[in-house]
Design brief:
Number of helices of chain A: 17
Strand order of the largest sheet of chain B: 1-2-6-3-5-4
Structural class of chain B: alpha+beta
Helix content of chain A: 40-55%
Radius of gyration of chain A: 24 Å
Order of helices and strands of chain B: HEEEHHEEHHHHHEHEEHHEEHHHHHEHEH
Number of strands of chain A: 11
Order of helices and strands of chain A: HHEEEHHEEHHHHHEHEEHHEEHHHHHE
CATH topology of the largest domain in chain B: Cytochrome Bc1 Complex, Chain A, domain 1
Structural class of chain A: alpha+beta
Mean pLDDT of chain A: 93
Largest interface: A-B, 88 and 91 residues
CATH class of the largest domain in chain A: Alpha Beta
Strand content of chain A: 15-25%
Oligomer: heterodimer
Strand order of the largest sheet of chain A: 1-2-6-3-5-4
Helix content of chain B: 40-55%
Number of strands of chain B: 12
CATH superfamily of the largest domain in chain B: Metalloenzyme, LuxS/M16 peptidase-like
Number of domains of chain B: 2
Strand content of chain B: 15-25%
Mean pLDDT of chain B: 93
Low-confidence stretches of chain B: 1-18
Radius of gyration of chain B: 26 Å
CATH architecture of the largest domain in chain A: 2-Layer Sandwich
């Protein structure tokens, strides 16, 4: 049935749209695995004389133990403080000396590290990256842990506690969605007490358990020669000792029972409403369709909620919706801020009406095609940058990690192209039940 | 002797390779690559509108920016915010399309079309797959040439912006930035008030105000088209000519640029505190009126600031973050515009270390007046000059560099000479830039934090007179909407 509907749709589309669909999306790459288990992917792009060195460790906050939340992220900070053959402070200094930049980020399921350098400094970047993979704890000490603990506590203050609506978005929402003990329950940045409790011994044991080459993948992309780069990667990473295999994470499936409501206060002028559902994991059936549900509801000015709440009724300052795709379980979130004089309840009523409309009747072909055209265009834009977060190197690593195939671009795009209006309706029906969801409201603190 | 030693080391490295590489020294990079600078092909449309084309064939996309040389610095007194609102209103209906019809047409093409303003310029910017360019350019042309300025859309945007002004009070970061700008520039210089204007000006704007700013700013004799992407002049100029070639200035003379008054003189250090009860961090902004983009000190300033607070290994960050752990990050920057913009050093620091953090900021401001060691100077210069290629990666990156070239009248060989100009900065030049622009005893210090915890320790530092400011003092009374 699905195929037949898609074929009908194709006939209805105006000709210029079909012309676009032909453009192939490909990132040529080579890959190999070192004897110690490190998987390596190389991609050549000579358009700018820069090289990106991008490592994903397949560990994130989901692996943390109770009482040690925030540890994966604290550990990420320690990765920049020097290693067996790199003095404290030298990691950044050496890279700045050659005009390079670096950063890292921690999610629930992975931690990534990016180094971008002018092409002549590739070997320096590989030396630094391999040294912390192999020898981080050789020069680690409790003082460094204390230093970064203070920095991370300030990161939490800055990005969660002192940011308007930060506590709702950075902590309370996931606490409500996932039951206690579920690895997505706690904030990635962790709780203050747990950050206080983290010890030097925890660092050593986390490194040995999760930072082995077999639990990582390395992408080197940019202005490089693949054969020479392979030799350099072999030179610098082969002496990194293999570790014990990491057992896959297993958690029981989660499901919300009933509507969970909560109201919290914050130092804000206007209330804000969050409505959230637990949804299928990244790349599972339903995941892509929910991206399109989000587009139909709140992607762009003509989306149903934006048009109605912001344009027509003018009772909301803004509204957004997205499917937050994650490895074990995703969530679908709608977020809206009322205009002064209006309430979250007024917004919720309209939000519910519009969700019910999508469930009752599939979106129009035009709405779906508009969303898919935007997704197609975004795939091109994603090809423009080699390094940094979200550059080509990072995307190759993400696809490799999620699917085993670094160049999964066409397959990913095909997921969206295959979706028709009735799939979107079905996803809304199946995954956005009115009776099983989280409703979080932030209200202004009473005046002192 | 040197030669023999090198040979010895090389032999040692080979014999070690069975066990692993020689990690005793980091590999030394070869000579830095030469950045092939984008070749700007300058042409004109039939109406004389200049077009700059840079070919970038890596990905089948194009960036097209229509830049006009008028921005919020040209907001007339009493009309602060008009440039910003006029730019936003361009997207609210143009040509034959209403606001929603326009958005639908743009979204359906998978294009990204925006309008915005900065201090010295406004722009309409399009990013689209090249296959959609022929359909997207007429939409862009409508936005730039035939905006509607409909009263109903103005009312909607006005309410949204009044609400944004209310929400700005939530964020200590925003309060600190605006309070700092007010402390440096006062109320009569444009830089002392938010780009968006105030609740009072926001309430006053009429469609005629918007039209009159628009008419003066958006005209072909005040504009340039910048195109970067998978195009050639042969392929793209005819398309542009179809959409922009018959654009004529409407009646009225040349664009009137507003002359700003001199910013208030500051002959002593002054502290301003805004109370935000209960916050876990103090947002700190410290600095002074800095330099204009045209300053001959540009390159020494870049190098000096990189060392002071412009990189991860900068003194401020190593001191306040890595050494003391007071903050997630401490930085500084010079915002250079046609008129001198601010020099700002900033950090969010934990409330109970506010005074300690201030002390360290000033320790670093004092220290940078003294010698800059050769190693640090070299690192600062390398970081700025060797990092240049990454500024030229995407079509958007390149278009922004070209916008700077246009707006600040940089010479055609500016980027070709960029690396030598940075390399030429001596320790003495960096130091004299610090003495000229980083004067610790003539700075304004803005702190947004929990007054009852921070006031006494900050007073005890004896940095200078302290003024307690209120949020209303910075923003005006909270606007009532509707």
């Amino acid at each position: 049935m699905k195929l037949a509907v898609a074929a009908c749709l194709a006939l209805l589309l105006p000709a210029p749209l079909m012309a676009q669909a032909a453009a192939p999306l490909q990132l040529p790459y080579t890959q190999f695995t070192l004897p110690n288990g490190l998987h390596v992917i190389l991609h050549e792009d000579h358009s700018t004389p820069v090289v990106a060195v991008n490592v994903w460790y397949h560990v994130g906050s989901a692996r943390e133990k109770p009482g040690r939340t925030g540890f994966a992220h604290l550990f990420e900070h320690l990765m920049f403080t020097g290693s067996g053959h790199v003095e404290e402070g030298e990691f950044d200094a050496l890279l700045e000396d050659v005009g390079g930049n670096n950063n890292g980020s921690t999610e629930q399921d992975r931690t990534n590290y990016v180094i971008d350098v002018p092409a002549n400094a590739l070997e320096l970047a590989l030396f630094l990256e391999s040294d912390r993979m192999g020898y981080l704890v050789d020069s680690m000490n409790p003082k460094r842990v204390d230093q970064q603990r203070d920095v991370v506590k300030n990161e939490r203050r800055q990005s969660v506690e002192n940011r308007p609506y930060g506590l709702a978005e950075g902590q309370v929402l996931t606490e409500m969605l996932y039951p206690e003990g579920h690895p997505y329950h706690w904030p990635i940045v962790g709780y203050m007490d747990d950050l206080t409790a983290a010890s030097y011994d925890d660092v050593v044991s986390f490194f040995k358990t999760y930072y082995a080459p077999g639990n990582a993948s390395l992408v080197v992309a940019g202005d490089l020669d693949p054969a020479k780069t392979r030799t350099l990667v072999e030179k610098w990473f082969s002496d990194v000792k293999p570790g014990a295999p990491v057992t896959p994470i297993t958690v029981p499936g989660v499901m919300l029972t009933g509507v969970q409501k909560k109201t919290i206060t914050d130092r804000v002028q206007l209330p804000r409403l969050y409505v959230a559902w637990l949804t299928p994991p990244s790349l599972a059936p339903g995941d892509a369709a929910l991206d399109l549900v989000a587009d139909v509801l709140a992607g762009g000015k003509n989306s149903r909620l934006y048009k109605r709440l912001v344009y027509d009724m003018q009772i909301a300052q803004n509204v957004s919706a997205f499917q937050n795709s994650q490895g074990l379980s995703s969530y679908f979130l709608i977020r809206a801020t009322p205009q002064p004089g209006h309430t979250p309840d007024e917004l919720l009523k309209v939000i519910d009406e519009e969700i019910e409309k999508v469930k009752a009747q599939p979106p129009t072909d035009h709405e779906v095609q508009r969303a898919i055209n935007q997704i197609e265009a975004s795939f091109f834009s994603r090809m423009e940058r080699v390094g940094g977060f979200g550059g080509k190197a990072d995307q190759l690593n993400r696809y490799y990690t999620d699917t085993g195939d670094p160049d999964w671009f066409n397959e990913d795009l095909a997921r969206y192209r295959a979706i028709g209006p009735t799939d979107i309706q079905a996803a809304a029906q199946e995954f956005l039940p009115a009776g099983r969801r989280v409703e979080l409201t932030v209200v202004p603190q009473p005046a002192r | 002797m040197r030669f023999a030693l090198t040979a010895l080391l090389a032999a040692a490295a080979i014999s070690l390779s069975a066990q692993g590489p020689d990690r005793s020294k980091p590999p030394v990079p070869g000579p830095p690559p030469t950045l092939k600078l984008p070749n700007i092909q300058k042409q004109q449309l039939s109406n004389g509108l200049p077009v700059w084309v840079v070919e970038q064939h890596e990905v089948p996309v194009a960036q097209v920016n229509l830049v006009v040389l008028s921005g919020s610095a040209d907001d007339p007194p009493g009309k602060y915010g008009i440039a910003s609102l006029a730019a936003s209103m361009l997207m609210e209906g143009a040509g034959s399309r209403s606001s929603l019809e326009l958005a639908d047409a743009v979204d359906f093409l998978g294009a990204d079309l925006t309008a915005g303003s900065a201090s010295d310029m406004s722009a309409v910017r399009l990013h689209a797959p090249v296959s959609r360019l022929a359909e997207a350019l007429p939409l862009m042309a409508d936005v730039a040439q035939r905006p509607m300025f409909a009263a109903a859309d103005l009312e909607r945007l006005r309410q949204q912006r009044l609400t944004t002004i209310i929400q700005a009070r939530d964020d200590p970061n925003t309060i600190a930035a605006l309070g700092f700008a007010r402390a440096l520039y006062g109320t009569t210089h444009r830089f002392g008030t938010a780009t968006m204007g105030t609740a009072e000006t926001m309430r006053s704007f009429t469609p005629d105000d918007l039209r009159s700013f628009y008419t003066a700013a958006f005209r072909p004799d005040n504009a340039t088209l910048i195109v970067v992407g998978d195009v050639t002049p042969g392929s793209v100029v005819p398309l542009l000519d179809k959409s922009f070639g018959s654009w004529k200035p409407t009646a009225g003379g040349a664009v009137a640029h507003v002359k700003q008054p001199a910013p208030p003189q500051r002959n002593r250090r002054e502290i301003y505190i805004v109370d935000k009860p209960g916050v876990p961090q103090s947002q700190i902004r410290i600095g002074a009126v800095g330099a204009a983009r045209s300053t001959p000190d540009y390159f020494p300033i870049q190098v000096m600031n990189t060392i002071l607070g412009g990189s991860f290994s900068s003194r401020l960050n190593l001191n306040l973050r890595e050494k003391h752990g007071y903050t997630y990050g401490a930085n500084s920057f010079f915002d250079m515009r046609i008129e001198p913009g601010p020099f700002t050093a900033f950090a969010g620091v934990q409330t109970d270390k506010t005074a300690e953090a201030l002390k360290e900021f000033f320790n670093e401001f004092e220290a940078i007046q003294r010698a800059v060691p050769a190693e640090e100077l070299e690192r600062g210069k390398n970081y700025v000059s060797l990092g240049l290629p990454s500024d030229f990666e995407t079509t958007g990156d390149i278009s922004r560099r070209l916008e700077d070239t246009l707006v600040y009248h940089l010479p055609d060989d500016y980027y070709a000479k960029y690396v030598p100009n940075i390399e030429a900065v001596s320790a003495a030049a960096a130091q004299s830039a610090a003495r000229k622009y980083v004067q610790p005893d003539k700075m304004a210090v803005m702190i947004v934090g929990d007054l009852k915890t921070i006031e006494a320790p900050v007073r005890a530092l004896n940095l200078g007179p302290i003024t307690i400011m209120t949020i209303d003092g910075i923003f005006g009374p909270p606007p009532s909407t509707r």
